[in-house]
Amino acid sequence: MNIDGKPYRTIWLDDDGRAVAVIDQTRLPHDFVIRRLASMAEAAEAIRGMIVRGAPLIGAAGAYGMALAMAEDPSDAMLGQAYTTLLETRPTAVNLRWALDDLRGRLTKLPPSGRRAAAYARAAEICDEDVAICRAIGDNGLALIRKIATRKTDGAPINALTHCNAGWLATVDWGTALAPLYRAHDAGIAIHVWVDETRPRNQGASLTAFELGRHGVPHTVIADNVGGHLMQQGMVDFCIVGTDRTTRTGDVCNKIGTYLKALAAHDNGVPFYVALPYPTIDWTIGDGLRAIPIERRDAREVSHMTGRTAAGAVETVAILPDGSPAANYAFDVTPARLVTALITERGVCPASEAGLLSLYPEQRPERRA
Ligand code: MRU
Predict the structure, then answer these.
(1) For the domain 147-368, what is the CATH superfamily, name and number?
(2) Alpha-carbon gap, residue 127 to 245, rounded angstroms
């Protein structure tokens, strides 16, 4: 996508052919800063500290982390150490495990001398594939939005509601949940997006609003508690979110607060769509509530907030009384029964095992055995 007229991806190989460049998402929306990751340890720290975040981008960064490790030392020992270090950075988004398994599987078959080039090539391929996947999700979601548009008789814009950031910043380009919204906007469909601020880290207020604003998509940031009211008032035509891990049965793990929006949508008859690429499907898990590891992050993300002062300085302030403990659960699970449909690169399907298998028949147990 474009920033001030210049096209960017969220991650790319630096000019030296070894280091990896990323957009520092901890600095947005106030500063647009490029960070250079020169080692596996720096890549791991960038994922842990959410300089890069969003499930597909975490996967791509993990792949480049493996490549950086192989540039440092292509031994078996480093391969194992890089895999473990990178995997431990964030536990919920399964795209990370998917990318690391993929790289480790290929690299272990090669002699050390062939690993560096193979790792960089595969990381680049994963990035290109993510862009193609997200474009396809955009196309498949656009078809749904066109149908919703035909039901609008008053000429008013379609109102979508989204949570967290599942836009191009969360992927390599285009995004998952935001891709259909960009495609609709670009196709001339009048669309307005309600953007949940998404406390505690404000991915909605800081990142989704930034993205939509730069692309010219009309949007309004709302506090996280507003969506239910808007749905009761008929002010939301559909919800669309991304996911960090979706089970083979269609349970959707996503940013904390997604479940409450799905409940409100269900109660008000508002369609609730989840957009996802295939690496986000965890075929090994059937019960999302019990089996998906939910990341718990530093309480400081709840007790403090960062913003820009009138004088232009970016500052962090405490918002809790001294001594009040805070808890920081980063994700929740929305049961499949609350999801209207899943939008993938292969098409749209019910949030169920049968639905997912209809799009991914190669995952049928008899074919995998
Ligand atoms: O903690 P984050 O910012 O990495 O969480 C991101 C989300 O929850 C997104 O909604 C999800 O990764 C889908 S992104 C395409």
Answers:
(1) Translation initiation factor eif-2b; domain 2 (3.40.50.10470)
(2) 19
Tell me if 124 sits within 8 A of 13, measured CB to CB.
Answer: yes
| Every domain of the chain and the residues it spans | 2-129, 147-368
Q: Which CATH architecture has domain 2-129?
A: Up-down Bundle (1.20)
170 Cα to the center of ligand 1, angstroms: 6
CA nearest ligand 1 atom 14, residue: 166
CA–CA distances in Å: residue 312 to residues 39, 214, 304, 307, 315: 33, 20, 19, 9, 9
d(CA 249, CA 230): 30
Q: Is 164 in the pocket of ligand 1 (CB under 6 A)?
A: yes
pLDDT tens sequence across 7-53: 999 999 999 999 999 999 999 999 999 999 999 999 999 999 999 99
The protein residue whose alpha carbon is closest to atom 6 in ligand 1 is 54
Catalytically annotated residues: 244
Q: Which atom of ligand 1 is nearest to the CA of 53?
A: 4
Residue 176 CA to ligand 1 center (angstroms) comes to 10
How do residues 191-249 score in pLDDT, each as one tens digit? 999 999 999 999 999 999 999 999 999 999 999 999 999 999 999 999 999 999 999 99
pLDDT tens-digit readout, 285-314? 999 999 999 999 999 999 999 999 999 999
Hey, what are 275's tokens? 């957009």
Å from CA of 214 to ligand 1 middle: 20
Write the residue with the smallest CA distance to atom 8 of ligand 1.
255
242 lines ligand 1 (CB under 6 A): yes
Q: Is the CB of 198 under 6 A from ligand 1?
A: no
- pTM higher than 0.90, yes or no? yes
For ligand 1, the distance from its centroid to the CA atom of residue 244, given in whole angstroms, is 6
